[in-house]
Design goal:
This protein is an alpha/beta fold. The chain has one domain: Alkaline Phosphatase, subunit A (3-Layer(aba) Sandwich), CATH 3.40.720.10. It is 27% helix and 18% strand. It has helices at residues 2-13, 48-56, 70-79, 83-86, 105-111, 151-154, 167-170, 187-201, 224-227, 266-296, 328-331, 358-366, 380-384, 450-463, and strands at residues 24-30, 58-64, 115-120, 144-146, 161-162, 174-178, 207-212, 220-223, 303-309, 314-315, 321-322, 332-338, 348-354, 394-399, 407-412, 416-421, 428-432.
Length: 484
């Protein structure tokens, strides 16, 4: 009946009923962004465009990545498979080495007749310096690719302030307030500009447009005006308990983030926090440009918008910096889904969800056939009722960077976070988020919680029945860029 109506409208008026149109997808990814946003209750970070975007759809308060590092996380949510399946657990291994025929998220849309394009960083290998490298991206995922590079990556590299002054550590604590450059001259400004051009050019066809912004990934470089929005005095470092390290397994702070503050002084760490927040506000403004263009082009009512970060980020919590831990700050990410047809738009869901859920969600919402074997579930029920019954945990894993590679598996429910290292052989952690949202008190050795630990350990074992060896890079596919 609906098809007959659509044919009648096309024949009579030259246009189809709204319900018959394919839904576009605008898939926006930020790099290294934690939940320091106004819409998540941060007391002073300014993120007006993301706050507004969240209000248009459903905001998820408990959303988690599968691996708190760029390449593994992105490979996971773009394939709909967990790291144990992709075997991507570093910055070099390409998922197609072990899964040559996997159908990625944009590929599923391409098979359904969509135009699929990428601007900026979606897979880890989308860096401008990787152009031309065979393993720099996943060519099968796109009809078109644009790799912008602005003055922050071409003209300012020699001026960036590095803490401490060594390349090995400094690459992850480095900043620069650009006194003369304009927003549109920076890489993320160019990402927004190119994304807008693609929408303008392809507005009359169904599209899957992935827009990958590079900030707030270090080095924290942005025009001066964004730094001027924040003061050093605001950037109070989280307190560190004197005995904290003795209460958790050594692997908990050997998974990528050096303690304390990655070797910098507290004053320098405050400067880094300020720069991180400045780049959040900068990239927020560029995301705003893209969404405004979508509205201007009359595409909002026919476009599903997703905003995510690939993982969270430590800014001194527990004395840690960066990511690659199983703590809340590294595992939790911002997530908004805007579907103009959804009943729950403007509401908040506190259910526990995962990035691996995005693939089945978007194919479900767009009526696109998804491949068999996806490891997440559609979030459609929560877009209709954010408080719907939901009995799913979130799973995050990592591998330590020390000489002995220790696997860490973490289970997050609405109340608990349970983490075990090497199936518990290297220690365990348990945190009660009802009473300890900052994860400051490890309850794993308290016999009063043995039943809780037993239940969560069983969930972890079911998800990770065996420890998977990370994939090994093969030069024939390219190694990508080994930046953090």
């Amino acid at each position: 009946m609906r098809t007959l109506l659509a044919l009648f409208l096309i024949a009579t008026f030259g246009w189809a009923a709204e319900s018959e149109k394919k839904m576009n997808v605008l898939f926006i990814v930020s790099d290294d962004m934690n939940n320091d946003l106004g819409v998540y209750g941060h007391p002073f970070v300014k993120s007006p465009n993301l706050d507004k975007l969240a209000s248009r759809g459903v905001k998820f308060d408990r959303a988690y990545c599968q691996f708190p590092w760029c390449a593994p996380s992105r490979a996971s949510f773009m394939t709909g498979l967990r790291p144990d399946k992709t075997k991507v657990m570093d910055l070099t291994y390409h998922f197609r080495q072990g899964l040559p025929n996997v159908v990625t998220l944009p590929q599923a849309f391409m098979k359904a007749g969509y135009f699929a394009a990428r601007v900026g960083k979606i897979y880890h290998y989308g860096n401008p310096g990787d152009i031309g490298t065979s393993g720099a991206d996943d060519p099968a995922s796109w009809n078109q690719v644009v790799n912008p590079a602005g003055r922050d990556k071409t003209a300012l590299e020699n001026d960036i302030l590095i803490y401490p002054p060594t390349t090995a550590l400094g690459s992850s604590m480095s900043l620069l307030a650009d006194r003369t450059g304009k927003d549109e001259e920076h890489t993320d400004g160019k990402v927004a500009t190119e994304a807008i051009k693609l929408m303008e050019t392809n507005k009359d066809k169904p599209f899957f447009l992935a827009v990958g912004f590079y900030k707030p990934h270090c080095p924290w470089v942005a025009p001066q005006k964004w730094f001027d929005m924040y003061s050093i005095e605001q950037e109070i470092l989280p307190p560190i308990a004197a005995n904290w390290k003795s209460t958790v397994p050594p692997a908990a702070y050997d998974s990528g983030a050096e303690w304390p503050y990655r070797g910098v002084t507290p004053a320098q760490a405050q400067q880094c926090r300020r720069a991180y927040h400045a780049t959040i506000s900068f990239v927020d403004s560029q995301i705003g440009r893209v969404v405004e263009a979508l509205d201007r082009l009359g595409l909002a009512q026919n476009t599903i918008i997703v905003f995510i970060s690939d993982h969270g980020y430590h800014l001194g919590e527990h004395g840690l910096w960066m990511k690659q831990t199983c703590f809340e700050e590294a595992a939790r990410i911002p997530l908004f889904i805007v579907d103009p047809r959804a009943s729950a738009n403007g509401k908040v869901s506190k259910r526990t969800v995962e990035l691996v859920d995005l693939y089945p969600t978007l194919t479900d919402l767009a009526g696109v056939k998804a491949p068999e074997g996806l490891e997440g579930v559609s979030l459609r029920p929560l877009l209709e009722n954010p408080d719907a019954s939901w009995n799913r945990a979130a799973y995050t894993q990592t591998v330590t960077k020390g000489k002995e590679k220790v696997q860490g598996y973490s289970v997050r429910t609405e109340r608990w976070r349970f983490t075990e290292w090497q199936y518990g052989e290297k220690g365990m952690e348990l945190y009660d988020h009802d009473n300890d949202p900052q994860e400051l008190k490890n309850l794993a050795k308290d016999s009063a919680y043995s039943e809780v630990i037993s239940e969560l350990k069983a969930l972890s074992k079911k998800m990770h029945p065996e420890m998977v060896t990370p994939g090994k890079a093969q030069k024939k596919l390219g190694e990508g860029k080994k930046s953090e």
